[in-house]
Each structure stands twice: as structure tokens, then as C-alpha cells.
Amino acid sequence: MNRHTAKITYAEAGAGAGAAPLICLHGIGGDTQSFRPQLDGLGDGLRVIAWNMPGYGGSAPLPETNFAALSAALCQFMDDLGIKRAHIAGQSIGGMVAQDFALRFPERAASLILIGTTPAFGGRDESFKQAFLEARLGPLDAGATMAELAASSAADIVGPIAGPHVIESVARSMASVPEATYRDILACLVTFNRRDDQQDIGQPCCLIAGSHDRNAPARTMEKMAARLPDAEYHCIEGAGHMINLEAPERCNGIIRAFLTAHDDRI
Prior knowledge:
single chain, alpha/beta, eight-stranded mixed β-sheet
């Protein structure tokens, strides 16, 4: 069962308020369950928190969905939980929010774990963005429901190592996203561009890519790691875009080793 602050619902597991916090930020089709393996597997010595992004899972929607507002919402969420500084893990757009947050509120982010994400959205021209939105929103515009969209797309975003239970979990989370939220967050996604700000992210960063991820290709993440001042890069063979769900033990091992190396930053 999710807990809640005044505006955000979330799931929490682990060692409690006295432990180092790890805040997990899901992707566009996700929710707190997108980090269930981390909630279940990383709680020994950590306070693991997975939020429902504004507009998701009972969290209050934002008046206007943009990265500045999402970062401010994350800052307020931490304030409401009495957290001054946390390790931030983000998958897909959650990783973009993590980067934006680290740049806007550097004192609040101890480190970043960036999973299946990029420093900027897609191509540099508007035609790419328009084609992307049309492809993602076309089924909804034609009358499909979020459940139908989820059922048809969940298997396409994972890699060959993902079992049926992973695909079912991805589809279930995506089906629960309100259509208005999905449309708003897609419009927000295509505005993301922190490509020229990478050198200003001073926190230690752990990048985890999937070899079969077509949304955040491994080669893009490897180049991103090379541009960040303090970064390590890992690629999980056979994983697609939902890397931490597809390879939970491998991801948890990478995350635990990374946080252990930087446990003095909280």
C-alpha cells in the first residue's frame, strides 16, 4: 500500500528514517512498482523510497508539467519527508528528472543512478519530436485505451532476458497511468535537453544501460558517462529499457556497490 505526503504518493522499504535515503523516480509508463525489486532488495541499511510522479498513482498533478516543476516537486517531496540530501535513482524520464534536479538543487542530491536514460531527448530537429509524439499518441487519438496501449507496447520495450512476469508488470503499471497525465508527460519529455550541462553535474554518477534498449541506447549512455565529471558505466547484456526490472539482481548489485563507495556523501 502506498503512503502519501500532502501531494505525492510513494512506497517505502528498508532501514527507516535514520538510514541513508535512496529516492527512485520511475519512467513515463511506470509507477512505484517500477522499482519493486529495489524496494525489496536494497533495504538493508538504506531507506528506499519510490515516488509516484505528479499525476501518477494518486499524486496530485502539476498545474504545468515541465522539468523545472518536476524538480521543484521532488524538492518539496524531500522536504515533506524530512530528507535534506538523498541518493537519486531515475529510470528513463526519471533519469532526466534526476539530472535536472541535480543541476537545480545540487546540495540536495548526493549521487545519481541513471538507468536507461539520456542527456537530451532524441534528435535535434522538431520533425523528430513531432514524429515521436504522433507515434506514441496515435493509438490514443484513434480511440485506444491506456490498457490497450500498454498491452500492445509492453513487450516492445524490454529485451530478450525479460520474462513474462516483467512484461505483465510493465503493462500493468502503464495501464494505470491516466491518459491526460501520459499526454502531458510526453509533451514534457520532448523538451528535455541537458546535453550542454553534463560537465556541471558534479555528483558521482552510476549509469546502467541495457544492450537491447532502443529508447536510451547503450552507446549513447556510454558517451554520456564519458562526458560526466565523475561517472561509472555498466551495460547489462540482453536487457531492454526496463533494466532494473529485467535484471534486478545485477542492477541491485551495481547500485549497492556504488552507494557503498559513496556512503560518506549523506
